[in-house]
Description:
6-stranded mixed β-sheet, about 25% strand
Amino acid sequence: MIPSAETPAISVAGLSKTYKGVIAVDGISFAIPRGSITGLLGGNGAGKTTTIGMILGLVKPTAGRIAVLGQDMATDRHAVLHRMNFESPYVALPGRLTVRQNLRVFARLYGVPNAEARIVALGEEFDLMEFIDREAGQLSAGQKTRVALAKALINAPEVLLLDEPTASLDPDSGDWIRSRIQTYSETYGATILLASHNMLEVERLCDDVIMMKRGKIVDRAAPQALIDKYGRNSLEDVFLDVARGRGRAGFIAEAT
């Protein structure tokens, strides 16, 4: 069956992951509409990265079902992997390969047509050309992040998963990356799932926010709706309320 345009870009049902008796993700369910940017928030150990890993097919769920672009990731993930991509500053590219060589490898892995032209186009868009033939291990943090995002866009993915894409960057570099993410979403109608600890970033980019704590979804709404619901001035204050179990009675409830 061919998925319809109304099929969610990402659909998760009863998803759980347990490591040696420790529950990392505890029976979560959500659907993300196509063309949206959704924030995935929670403190360290909330289950965000594990959730992203399971959506990518890198981590095998203990229970539950995941579908991406209408394809079951347990049985048909090879039909959709070339339409997805991922970026995290915590996943380093091979340091002895140049930027160009790294992009060339990933272009081949994703079967990108006219790969050399695509690499040059991304190199110009992300200001990589001055160091495109430098080894990746010799780059600054900001340069590495720009290269990692270019890698994540090499196949023009319909679904893009980002795990703290601006972590450890200075404000100017972080703003530069956020602008490119926003432009890509608006230009290509891509669906983006963004895990971040930067609340201003989430407020700026996200249409919707899923809040996790101890492996569970504890709330979900648009950024301003959450701010209004908790009676706070910013999403960071809401994040602290959820993380520390504060807030008015009934505010922190299992999302439906």
